[in-house]
Amino acid sequence: MHAKVSEFTGNNIYPTLDDKSIVFLNSGGGGGGLGSGSEIDLLWITCAWKGLKRLLPQNKEKLCAQRRVIWLHRHLAGTHKANANFKDKEVLVTGSTSQIGVCIIGRLLAGGAKVVALKHKTTLYFEHPNLKWIQGNLEKGQLDLGDHKPEAVIHCAPMWMLRNALTDMFNARIKRIIAFSSTSVFVKIYSANKAERDTVKALEDAELNLAERCQKAGASFTILRPTMIYGLGLDENITQISDFARRYHFFPLYPPADGRRMPVHADDLAQMAMKVITN
């Protein structure tokens, strides 16, 4: 398992940080910081972080596209052993260009599976004999599987987008659904930030909707609730902190900065999904 950011440095995707070369600057002043939940503090941090991000290189789209393709090739280069359980099985992957989606597609293809990957706006220039890209919009319930008959779905898009596609999935006789939600349903339920509480409500409603409709359709489901996700350099938190600290050799902290996070690597989540889907 990937315990630290600095452990994952393959293909120059995540250059190692030298702890001695980074100074974490306390921005001074009072206030409750990350631990207080104050709306003013959150606004201050948001504005400050948006300003800091302007100091980073702005070729984000090109860089993210390169990282996605590198990771797919990495899986297919023999890094991971093929799993006989997936030989010739067809699996639908939603949120296919997300961090988790890319890792899952790579592992499924390496295992001999046939993958139907749903994309919306992001185009990934990667082809494989067992990979079929389809266009759709989960928010609007636009899911056309055509002649594809996947045995299972691994949903990597936002949890609340799944409900509008379930009817089409059940019509295609899909009987196994793995969906990624978030630990926010536990840790942010009493957040002082209304937007975070709204997200929690949307996640809870989506999870209940999935459970009820799978029960009626006779389908099995598993909901995975990860914490903060990192690993491919596509995230908006650890990657940008890492890039900033590596580039300028410091990173400002707003006091008391006592919030704690336990990030999980996207490929670890992909491995988990691969194990769950065969049970």
Mean pLDDT: 77
Question: What distance separates the N and C termini?
Answer: 21 Å
Cα radius of gyration in angstroms: 20 Å
Largest sheet: 6 strands, parallel
Morphology call: globular
- Share of helix among residues? 25-40%
Strand order across the biggest sheet? 4-3-2-5-6-7
- Class inferred from helices and paired strands: alpha/beta
The number of strands is 10
Beta-strand share of residues: 15-25%
Task: State the order of secondary-structure elements, H for helix, E for strand.
Answer: EHHEHEEEHEHHEEHEEH
Number of H/I helices: 8
Low-confidence stretches: 1-37
Structure description:
With about 280 residues, the protein is α/β, with parallel strands linked by helices. Helices cover about 35% and strands about 15% of the residues. The chain has eight helices and ten strands. The protein has helices at about 40-55, 60-80, 100-110, 165-170, 185, 195-215, 240-250, 265-275; strands spanning about 25, 90-95, 115-120, 130-135, 150-155, 175-180, 220-225, 230, 250-255, 265. The chain has a six-stranded parallel β-sheet, with helices on both faces. Strands 1-9 form a two-stranded parallel sheet. A two-stranded parallel sheet has the order 8-10. Helix 2 runs parallel beside helix 3 and helix 3 (about 100-110) crosses helix 8. The longest helix is centred in the last third of the chain and has 24 residues, at about 195-215. The protein is globular. The two termini are about 20 Å apart.
